[in-house]
Structures are given as C-alpha cells and as structure tokens.
Input
Amino acid sequence: RAIADYEERLSQAEAYGDVGLRVDLENQISDETRHKEEVEQILTGWS
Output
C-alpha cells in the first residue's frame, strides 16, 4: 500500500512540476520496493 501511495504522490508532483519532490518520491518508491522484495524473499524461506 505504501508504494501505491508514493506513486500517487509522484503523479501529483509531476503534474505540479516539482522536480525535486518527484526525485525524492522516485527514490522512496525504489527503497520501498527493495524492502518489499527482501521481506518476500525472507518469508519464502520460512515456508
């Protein structure tokens, strides 16, 4: 859900023309995606 929220804010930042915020949000999306994938990998190992 966090990733979807950041993506929504990214669209808003792009529409507003805020390049700095757009870059920050892209980085946050990348971090959250990596975290999600790491957690999925850990949980897969527990099965």
The helical segments are 2-16, 19-45.
